[in-house]
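Notes from hallway chat w/ T.B., transcribed later so I don't forget. T.B. wanted the structure written out for a chain they're using in a teaching module, and asked if we could keep both sequence and structure tokens in one place. Agreed to drop them here.
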Amino acid sequence: MAALQLLLATHNAGKLAEYQRLLQALPLRWRTLADEHITAESPEDGGSFMENARNKAAFYAQLSGCLTLADDSGLCVDALQGAPGVHTARYNGVQTPYPAKLALLIDALRTIAWEQRTAQFHCAVVLADPSGKFILEAEGKCAGRIALAPAGNHGFGYDPLFHLDAAHCTVAELDDAHKDRISHRGNAVRALLPQLQALAAHAAAG
């Protein structure tokens, strides 16, 4: 049975691992930017997560000649008027390590009461063909609040600070299976799953 070849447009090993878990039931042959020897960075100057995801998907699909899955995701904190939002990865500088980003966020919310520390993880996912045409797209969210201090060793990025009321812990304290069931990325991918299954079935039949 032929597998559908899919380029995942990220340099983030954590994202790659999540997508491989979320789509493990599909007959996919994953390609990475490293596999394609692509070091170029797509511009991330869009005004929304979806705009950035579309830009990335088209950029890497045209550059690689591959069917390409791209996402843009980030953290929106209500007490900060939605910041860092689309600037999440660049919060306090692109090269700033995440412990420093987390420390900056904690400091920004130091006077904010627990009840007002609400936040959402957002994810926009787009699939583009080699011409740059958008084939599929979806968005997902996960609601929580910003913890008073980091906790947990799983996940990546802002996971140690994102507290889930229902689970009574941060995302970084969840195992992979639990995270995938509730995460913004998991919710976005599940919205695409029927269409991705149809594409994979078509590739297998061909």
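Follow-up for T.B.: Strands lie at 4-8, 28-32, 68-77, 118-128, 134-146, 162-164, 169-170. Might be a good example for the class.
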